[in-house]
Amino acid sequence: MFTGIVTDIGEVTAVTARGDGLNRLSIACRYEADSIALGASIACSGVCLTVVDLARDGGRTVFSVDAASETLRLTTAGEWQAGTRINLERSLRAGDELGGHIVSGHVDGLAKVAARTDLDGQMRLDLEAPAALSRFIATKGSVALDGVSLTVNTVEGERFSVLIIPHTLSVTTLGGVQAGSLLNLEADLMARYAARLLETR
Predict the structure, then answer these.
(1) Pick the catalytic residue: 50, 91, 104, 181?
(2) Higher-confidence residue: 164 or 58?
(3) Would you kindly state where each structural domain of the chain is located, as residue ranges?
């Protein structure tokens, strides 16, 4: 479980195909190697992945994760290559501050950036959600985009907008997105449960 508050920006250092549609991804970060256990979960641009190997490379820690074919198909992980920068978040521990919203790390689909508007240090993104997910997105509700917890400003059909403050732009990869970019989208878990309850009434 995560909160959508990014704690580091990692860099993919290697992508190795391992057969059966599985890719091993090596990711450099600033986390202390001794603080990461094998089997730990780390959200990588919103995708919950399991640490399977650890190494040190100079002053950086490099952890490796395996991304299965379903993950590669449904998320941006299938496009990652050496040099790709990704948002990182360690899993939530009991007693940690819940600064964003409850994020599972199970990406629902891809949101496409329809427009980017720069606003005096801030940025507005207008995005198009997959039709099946748009019903879970509500004005003033929460979404996770590439692992970043954001508040929804407006919703019109399958299009929604978010406003990104300067701090978020400085500590995440969102400042580099442009019109046409695809972002990992996770809908609010509570919205999913509410929709399911209505369906079963």
Answers:
(1) 50
(2) 164
(3) 8-90, 109-200
Amino acid at 76: T
160 has catalytic annotation: no
pTM: 0.93
**Separation between Cα atoms, residue 114 and residue 59, nearest integer Å:** 38
Domain 8-90 matching CATH 2.40.30.20: the answer reads: yes
Q: What is the pLDDT of residues 71-108, one digit of tens each?
A: 999 999 999 999 999 999 999 887 777 788 889 999 99
How many C-beta atoms surround the C-beta of residue 79 within 10 A? 10
Q: Is 106 a catalytic residue?
A: yes
Helix (H) or strand (E) holding 2: none
48 among known catalytic residues: yes
CATH for the 109-200 domain, from 2.40.30.20, 3.30.390.50, 3.30.470.10, 3.40.250.10? 2.40.30.20
